[in-house]
Design a protein that fits this description.
alpha+beta
């Protein structure tokens, strides 16, 4: 019988000739990938250790090496792997030739033309950032360990109790048989079959999301003359998920609105080198908010995280990192990453769809791109016909795009009210979508606004980076989502702040601050409690802006988020009661100079705060002067016209590219074009002239976003 041991301890890590002893999980970008510097280390580093000789067949298992790795044993190659988010294995049997064997793993997170992703709004942390194991004493005949990093056994379970099993056996020979057994939660065998690939469980208990996430276990055994020589166990659930273009999502025949958030896997000072406690803490915070669905963006995440989602009942959108910039040369790698994602995870009851691309048309939509996504979609359906395929379109992608008619369900990433227009733009777009494409099965796959702790205003405005505006933004979106039954789900961008080394905005470098919870998971922003008010059944009250005790003297407005029906505020001898759903607004409440006791009650709940009355808010409550921003209206006057020291479409390409901020953004998407000798011919022309050329093929939505973006950037001096 095969054995598994952890190799997480006692590695020698070498970066640019400097060595240190480390334990895994490990990343070399836990600080520079999310901190004060605009660049972070991308390149090759090595991990080395000594391995003894082991019995039987031996395999090295890497659960996450970002993004390219190669393995040497005693200087001889065991293989390489392209892609930083999936499990990969290498057979070492013939390479372990002595009592002490030198294992060297080279990991490289530098940009490569043959690996996705090449460009995206998140940090590509390098390292062996998940567990590394050694599997030894593997018998000659065993469930395959080299089929796309899977365990060699694949399950499709249906609501009626049917279980279809497929297994791949290495070293198969006569006299070998296979036994499949289904065990219930208490370990009792409820179905079995010898060598057959179909089992049936009578009256199965359904996996029913967060309500009853019941799991069974499939135990597959290889027998040699009746003796078990290898086993594989996978947990799964019986459930059925269908989508309707008008009524949304149905789980086991019952309508369910998918109330979702997106999750990046990294955290402050840790990067993506997470341990089990980190995963569990994330899900406990998510559960508190009342979430029932997760979009795991934009890559395959840890196997133990999918396990926890199975156990807790979250419905999961799983996807591959085909994102932002289409790369025809990386299509083979995209196909491989898709195969690994599906084969390694298709047993998980929580996963309801496979995502094949995110914002891939952000630059343009070409026939090659369309064909590549079609190939990915078809491959996903071939590997797993039981699940839906999906994609997340960039906001400006045309509603009649061929890509929208390719996957089973679709999502759109919209930031009306942050990067473009106002929040009401969402309502206008939804109306247009139903008019142009009424048969489309739609969700909001991303939406969000930055909320930086420390900024506060009585009247938050678009682009001020305050928690208050972030909350107002989400107030509009949650109301709109709830008002449209055909929107089968929505995914807040993002549950947690996350590292993005390319960013420098809102007074914070190296971070995307759209999270509902801070990067270190210690502070829940006002928007967190807004969603809790609409999604959670655990009764609570929350004073919006409770971390800002200084309020202006005089009659003031207060907002409260609660899932109670009625909320009462008392301050300065005055009391007001409001009946509402989720959002409670109070006006005309007195704030005197000095300390004021404010009490909020709702049923049996009572919260007390101390409010200090001041003449003017302190300067630190506002965004610092001179902070760079990509957000519409930041360098805009009250009459909504750009300042003279900011760019416009009427500036020349040459002048615009003098801006380091713009050059940094554009280089990521169109690096070759920026460096091309032909750029010298384009520089004298204005951006408006270039965008108006038919050959450029940029639609009005993209032009509008370009105008809104550059009007926020100060001209280079």
């Amino acid at each position: 019988m095969k054995k598994i041991i952890s190799l997480n301890n006692d590695w020698v890590f070498c970066k640019e000739g400097v060595k240190e002893n480390v334990s895994l999980p490990h990343t070399w970008n836990n600080l520079d990938g999310q901190g004060a510097e605009s660049t972070y280390y991308k390149g090759a580093c090595t991990y080395t250790k000594i391995l003894p000789r082991y019995e039987g067949k031996v395999f090295l298992e890497l659960k996450g090496a970002n993004s390219f790795c190669k393995v040497l044993v005693n200087g001889r190659s065991a293989g390489e792997h392209k892609g930083g988010y999936s499990t990969c294995r290498f057979e070492l049997t013939k390479l372990l030739t002595s009592p002490k064997n030198f294992l060297e793993i080279t990991v490289d997170n530098g940009e490569r033309k043959d690996i996705y992703p090449a460009f995206a709004d998140f940090t590509f942390y390098g390292g062996l950032y998940r567990d590394v194991n050694l599997i030894y004493d593997v018998p000659e005949t065993h469930f395959s360990l080299t089929d796309a990093g899977s365990k060699g056994v694949y399950i499709t379970a249906k609501k009626n109790g049917d279980v279809h099993v497929k297994s791949i056996i290495s070293g198969y020979r006569t006299g070998i048989s296979v036994l499949y057994e289904v065990l219930d939660k208490d370990g009792r065998v409820v179905a079995s079959a010898g060598d057959k690939q179909k089992l049936h469980v009578d009256s199965p208990i359904l996996w029913n999301g967060t309500e009853t996430p019941y799991l069974y276990t499939l135990r597959a055994s290889i027998l040699d003359m009746g003796k078990v020589i290898d086993t594989c166990e996978l947990r799964f659930g019986f459930r059925e998920i269908v989508f309707d273009k008008d009524k949304g999502c149905f789980l086991n025949g019952k309508h369910i609105k998918l109330k979702g958030v997106s999750r990046h896997q990294d955290r402050e000072a840790v990067g993506n080198a997470l341990i089990m406690e980190n995963h569990l803490e994330d899900l406990e915070i998510i559960k508190e908010m009342g979430v029932n669905s997760l979009r795991l963006a934009h890559y395959q995440q840890a196997g133990e995280f999918y396990d926890l989602c199975d156990e807790m009942g979250f419905l999961v959108w799983a996807e591959i990192p085909v994102i932002s910039r289409f790369n025809k040369k990386a299509q083979d790698n995209a196909m491989t990453q898709l195969e690994e994602l599906i084969k390694q995870n298709m047993h998980h009851a929580s996963i309801f769809c496979w995502g094949v691309q995110n914002e891939i048309t952000i630059t343009t939509e070409t026939p090659d791109l369309v064909e590549a996504i079609r190939e990915l979609n078809n491959y996903a359906k071939f590997l797993d016909p039981s699940r839906a395929t999906t994609c997340a379109q960039v906001s400006m992608s045309k509603i009649d795009s061929e890509l929208n008619r390719m996957t089973d369900i679709i999502g759109y990433n919209h930031y009306f009210g942050w990067y473009m227009k106002t929040c009401e733009g969402l309502d206008e777009w939804l109306e247009k979508f139903r008019e142009v494409y009424p048969e489309g099965t739609l969700c909001l796959s991303e939406y969000g606004a930055e909320g930086v702790l420390g900024y506060f205003s009585d009247e938050p405005t678009q682009g001020d980076y305050s928690e208050g505006y972030q909350a107002r933004f989400h107030e509009h979106y949650i109301k709109t989502i709830n008002a449209h039954d055909y929107i089968w789900g929505s995914y807040v961008w993002n549950m947690f702040d996350f590292g993005s080394a390319m960013r420098n905005e809102g007074g914070v470098r190296g971070r995307n601050n759209k999270g509902l919870v801070t990067f270190d998971r210690k502070e829940k922003k006002d928007s967190f409690y807004l969603y809790k008010a609409f999604w959670s059944e655990d009764k609570f009250v929350h004073l919006v802006g409770d971390r800002y005790p200084l309020r202006k003297i005089g009659e003031q407005k207060f907002r409260v988020y609660s899932n109670c029906d009625k909320v009462t505020i008392k301050i300065g001898g005055k009391q007001k009661t409001v009946t509402a759903e989720g959002i409670f607004e109070f006006e005309g409440l007195p704030v005197k100079e000095g300390e004021n006791k404010l009490t909020i009650t709702a049923g049996d709940i009572k919260e007390t705060y101390t409010i200090t009355g001041v003449e003017e808010y302190p300067r630190e409550y506002r965004l610092p002067d001179g902070c760079s921003s990509m957000v519409r209206n930041w360098f805009v006057d009250k009459n909504d016209t750009a300042h003279e020291n900011c760019y416009s479409l009427d500036d020349t390409i040459g002048d615009i590219l003098k801006s380091e901020e713009i050059l940094g953004m554009v280089s990521g998407v169109a690096g070759k074009l920026v460096k091309s000798p032909l750029m010298a011919l384009v520089k004298p022309f204005t951006l408006r002239q270039i965008l108006s050329l038919k050959v450029v093929k940029i639609d009005e939505g993209m032009i509008e976003m370009a105008e809104q973006f550059i009007s926020t950037v100060q001209k280079a001096k």
